[in-house]
Amino acid sequence: MTKNNSIIDFTKIIKRLELIKNLISLEEENEISEQIDKLQKLVLDDTVKSIIKHLQQKSYGIAVKEIEIFINKHHQVAIYIDPEIEALRFEAKALEYEIQQLSDEKVELDKLIYEFSVRHNKELGELIIKILKYRKEKSKGTKQQAEAEKDYESFYTNFEATKEEKIADLTEEELKELKDKYRKASKLCHPDVVEESQKETAHKIFTELNTAYERNDLKRVSEILESLQQGKIFTSKADTANEKQTLQAEIERLRARLHDLNEEINKIKTSETYEQILNITDWDEYFAKTKLQLQEQLNHLEDGEK
Questions:
Q1: What residues pair up with 236 in beta bridges, in sequence order?
Q2: How many angstroms separate the CA atoms of 50 and 53, rounded?
Q3: Which pLDDT score, from 0 to 100, does residue 304 have?
């Protein structure tokens, strides 16, 4: 009986042991420890654990002998996998990793803009609404009326939708924990890399995770991560596909998604809002200064009405 009733993957174990045996023959001792670490991540039986012990003790002669016995004994148990399928699966996994990295980058950009937007509405929203309302009233009967009304309605709608949004204040240590847990959770439920039948469920969890992350809700992000780690309900399509055509189609889909993500990130980075945020070195100073300017502008408009 193996740990947690998991199945031993003899194919991966044999390949890893063969690689270690070749490294020993090449006297590449520095690389052996890395392969041992990777081997220990697999489900192992007592024989392989014994081999690892000999390797760690640098008893390479005994280790090689036991490796050969193990391979000869279990070679027929190992399932043959077409090398091209393995290569395609590796390519798909590499693309999945790139997508997750880019997705994390996009989430960080979205989070920054969201935080700025929430604070902008909180500190400046009511003043801006008053100013836009004055402009709307003054523009009646002029060519600027339609544009002034549109500006007012657009800002007012956005302000009402977001004025109750709150972002928790976290310490630097808590923010670091939040980011770390978010990234671990996102990799477990990212809808771009799971099997087709799981995408809808993954998308719901991923959306909730992103919302919690934007709001600095460390408690909820922690809960989602714990649930994902315990449930382990999602699997990568690259891990489960065994046909060349299926893997090739998945690779094309992943490449297309990668392209779209790059486009989305580029669009954010070239947006007026993001460029404005980049130019602000101190948010406190910016909002204090802008609030004063808007108040002066409002006072001027009110004086004009008297």
A1: 194
A2: 5
A3: 67
Burial of 289 (0-12, 13-18, 19+ CB in 10 A): exposed
Q: What is the DSSP string of 174-237?
A: HHHHHHHHHHHHHHHH-TTTB-GGGHHHHHHHHHHHHHHHHTT-HHHHHHHHHHHHHH----BH
Which contiguous run of DSSP H or E holds residue 6? Answer: none
Are 218 and 178 spatial neighbours (Cβ–Cβ below 8 Å)?
yes
Contact 212, 220 (CB under 8 A): yes
Asked if residue 218 lies in contact with residue 174, where contact means CB atoms within 8 angstroms, the answer is yes
Taking alpha carbons only, the member of 90, 64, 108 closest to residue 12 is 90
Chain centroid to CA 70: how far?
40
What is the distance between the alpha carbons of residues 225 and 181, in angstroms, rounded to a whole number? Answer: 7
DSSP state at residue 78: S
Per-10-residue mean pLDDT for the chain, 306 residues long?
A: 58 88 87 89 89 92 92 70 79 92 95 94 93 90 90 90 87 96 93 88 95 96 93 75 84 95 97 95 96 93 70
Residue 123 CA from chain centroid, whole number:
30
Spans of all domains in the chain = 3-74, 85-122+167-305
Q: How many CB atoms within 10 Å of residue 174?
A: 13
The DSSP annotation for 220-276 comes to: HHHHHHHHHHHH----BHHHH--SHHHHHHHHHHHHHHHHHHHHHHHHHHTSHHHHH
On whether the CB atoms of residues 24 and 63 are closer than 8 A, the answer is yes
Amino acid at 164: E
